[in-house]
Amino acid sequence: MPVPGYPRLKSVASKRAESFGNGIPHEGMYTREELKELVAYCAERGIEVIPEIDMPGHNQALAAAYPEFFCFPDHNTKVSTTGGVGLYLVCPQKPEVWKFYAAVFDVLKDIFPSKIVHLGGDEAPLEKTWQKCPLSVKYRQKKGMKDVHEELKEFEGKMASMLAARGRRPQLWYEKPWAEAGIYRKGDTVFTWRMGLTPSTITETKKQGLPLIIAAGEHCYLDYPQIPGQDNRGWMPTTTLERSYKLDPAYGRPEKATDHIIGVQATMWAEHLPTLNHLLYRTYPRAMAIAEAGWSPMDVRSWDNFRRKVADHRAFVLKRFNYDLERTKENEPPFK
Ligand SMILES: [Zn+2]
Questions:
Q1: Spacing, Cα 103 to ligand 1 middle (Å)
Q2: Domain around 309
Q3: pLDDT, tens digit, 9 for 90 and up, residues 132-161
C-alpha cells in the first residue's frame, strides 16, 4: 500500500529477489485507487475489508526500505524470500516510527471504511530486539519499567490511541505471554491461532473480557495442504476437508463459557502459494466447512450431509474459479 512521503515502500519493500528459492523475482503493490475499488467490490457483496498492519514484528520488508526505523539499523537488509519469524521489530523509541504509522493510519482511514484495523502483534521476539536496544534500555530505566512487556503495553496503547483519534479500534493475534503481561485492554478483539492453544485461550480471554475470533491452526489455516503429498513447505500439517469441518468454535463448552466468541476465521497466507490458482484451489472447498462451522449450531452439523452439499457445489466452484488442475500439478481438491 502506498503511503505519501515513503516512496521506498514501492521502490524497495514491494520487491523481492525470489520466493522460496524459485529464482524468480517478484514484485507488486496496490494503488490507492485499486484498494478503493476492491473495498467497493466487496461492499456490494456484503463483505467488509479489514486491513492488517502487523507490528511491531513481521516487518523485514519495512526494514529493507527504512532500516532507520529499527533498533539496530542494517542497511544490507533484504526483503525476505521465505516466511517465518524475523528479528525485525520497529523501535518504539524512535519518533520517525510514530510519524510513519500516523501517515499509514491516515491512508487506511481514507481507503477502508471499516472501524477496525488489525495490528497483528504476533511473533515478535522482544528479547532479541527491544530488550537489548540502547534507546529502549534507557527509556525503561527512566520510566521505571520493570520489563520489556511494560514497554510493549505502552506501545500498543499508543497505537490504539492513534487509531481512536481516527475513529478506529485495533484487533490483535492472541499471544499468551502478552496476555499474561496484561498487554490487551478489556474489549480488544483477539484471534486464537496457535496449534493446541485454542481451549486455554477460550478460558483466558473469557476471564479477561476479550472478544475472541476462532482461527485455530488445526482447522482454519487454508494455506496448509488438504491432501497428503501436496507441497507443505517441509512443515505444514495436512488439514483435510473433514478436519476443517470438524471445527466446533465453542470446543464443546456451554454458551455461558463461550459467549465472548464472536466468530470464526479461515486464514489464507498467500505468500506460501505460487499462483492465484493454487490459492483458490487450497481455499475451496475448505472455506465452506469453516463457514458452516460459523453459522450452524453443533446439533445440526453433519459431516455426511455437508459432503453431499459440497459435491453439489463442485461444478459451480470449479467453473467459477477456473481451476487449472493441470497447472497446479496437484490432485483435484476433495469435493466429496
Ligand atoms: Zn529500539
A1: 20
A2: 8-328
A3: 999 999 999 999 999 999 999 999 999 999
